[in-house]
Amino acid sequence: MRRKLAETLYSQPASLIAGSAAGVACAGAAMSVAESRLVDLAAGLLILTALLRVAVATWLSHRAGQRDARSIETIYEIGAFSYGLMVGALAATTLYVGAPAYAQVLTVAYAFAFGVGIAARNAGRPAVAIGQLLLATVPTAAWGLAAGGAGYALAAASVLIVFSVVSSTFDFFRTLREQIIVADTSALMAEKMRELARTDVVTELLNRDGLNEEAHRLLMQLPDERKLALFWLDLERFKEINDTLGHQAGDQVLAEAAKRIRRAAPGDAAISRFGGDEFIVVASVADRGEAEHLAQALDTEIAAPTRVAGRRIEICASMGVALLPDDGPDLDSLMQAADLALYHAKVGRREAACFFDRAMTRHLVRKKEIETDLRAAIQRDELSIFFQPIVDLETGRIRTFEALVRWFHPEKGELRPDEFIPVAEETGVIITLGNWITAQAARACARWPEDVTLAVNLSPVQIRAPGAALGILAALRDAQLDPRRLELEVTESLFIDDDAHTARFIEELAAAGVRFALDDFGTGYSSLGYINKFPFTKIKVDRSFVSGPNTGKNSDAIIRAVAEMGTTLGMDIVAEGLETLEQVQAVRDAGCTLGQGYYFSRAVPDYLAAMLLSQERRGCEAERLVAG
Ligand code: C2E
Ligand code: CA
Ligand code: CA
User: Fold this and answer.
1) Which residue has the higher pLDDT, 74 or 348?
2) How far apart are CA 547 and CA 576, in angstroms?
3) I need a surface site. Which of 129, 327, 455, 464 has the fewest CB within 10 A?
4) CATH homologous superfamily of domain 377-627?
5) What does the alpha-carbon distance between residue 387 and residue 404 come to, in Å, rounded to a whole number?
6) Ligand 1 mean position to 418 CA, how many Å?
7) Which CATH superfamily is domain 208-356 in?
């Protein structure tokens, strides 16, 4: 405030120059008519002071911002007081030496005009204003008192003028001060609003806008030899926490994660919550090694268990990391690279942090290709449905065929569903594709014996699409297939996201007679709650428990436990991925009722599926004949 008031002293150098020019003119006129050494001296000093002040003021008006308020004031005060004194002294001198009347009138009038004018102009610093007023007018009043007679009137008039000007100067000063306070408060408010607009309320970290600003600031200040590292973190299973423990607990988890990220990140890093459960940290690092350390530190800090809503919770984060300039020349490409790395971290799940590399872009390009090709493939008849039998482990008979999609690409050869189904899911193509698969498979199944059922895989994206249940019922109607012969395979991932809609979908179809199987059991979240909640008739134990490198005592115990649960709840338990006779015997002994795998058959085209069935029937017929 002091600085602003002091600045008003120099805000209009033009008025100072005009005032000084008037003073110089007065002094010159007085000199030329008074013919008095004393007047010459006073006038000469006035002219000199005036010129010096103008010079200093012009110089300072360009540099006022660089100096402190106190020194601006001091410089101004010295000039102002000496000039005021000169003006007062010249007026008193012309009176004292008895100069010609018009010289007296001119200098006295100038002294009073100067005093009054300057008091208004300098009201921002009342002490300076009133000091100048007094210096300019008191000598005249003093001469009046000393001279007596009519001089008394002059003295009295001077006192009254000074009195009224002083009081209005103070009024003016108060108004000015209030205005400055108001302006300052609104500037403070504006700053606060700006701060709020860039802050995330839940975590008090930066939001998107704030991050954008801060990241640009870091980039501008980045020394040539350093790099900018961008860490994109995504909390795992956050949605699950939010859904099961409530939003308040969710917010608590976010705030806790934010606190930890802040603790692990360097002091000048830009840290933001980038919507939902994603966080971004941008920091300057010396090299890739330092970025790796930082990623490690962030991961360790976040992974420590915490208590939320009375429960012990382990927050985990996937992380994508990219460096500037290595992975991109600007912030946009840095974000893209980190996003891609994050995607890989989530899919891979091997290590928490994944650094960007060029191969990821190639992967992305392939994904894009698949996306475009896939849309055309449906029209061009490149897709077909294969069927893999699910066999009763007691009788060895085929109970169900699982429909598995196959894509024979004219250039890329056979593409695995694991490769293109995720792309179809991400892009939404799965909805069209899924409807097509259901319709085709239902048509094939309608040609099989009544007791053979059809299993179709359903992705969560398909289920969430509007009218999903109606679409499936329509496909069944078109194929004239009894809904009770259709079994939809869904995975556990379906139940973390959207409960109400999923429940409605399942209820609607279950009411029509469609059955549900829980696919890939044991690989996902394996919360047993939903097995009770939804009408599953079948659980498919994932093939990683049956064959492959990680099977053994533990997986055997798991299969046993699941099979026991199945018996209790009256569900079929399917062992997937059976490749050898030993595996078949083992899962049967463990209590599984059904089996699927290369041991029985690979997935085959529909005509081969039909052939398998008729062979089996013929075999049975022969057995019956022999037995009979
Ligand atoms: P899934 O539902 O678990 O299907 C079983 C997968 O295991 C099939 O792979 C099948 O060929 C394979 N498999 C069967 N027996 C054995 C065995 O003994 N050993 C080994 N190592 N593998 C065996 P596929 O056809 O490549 O499908 C992979 C996944 O793609 C499926 O896993 C399913 O999640 C998805 N998928 C396939 N077709 C469709 C579809 O029509 N719609 C949807 N939404 N997803 C599909
Ligand atoms: Ca399946
Ligand atoms: Ca499966």
Assistant:
1) 74
2) 9
3) 464
4) EAL domain (3.20.20.450)
5) 6
6) 8
7) Reverse transcriptase/Diguanylate cyclase domain (3.30.70.270)
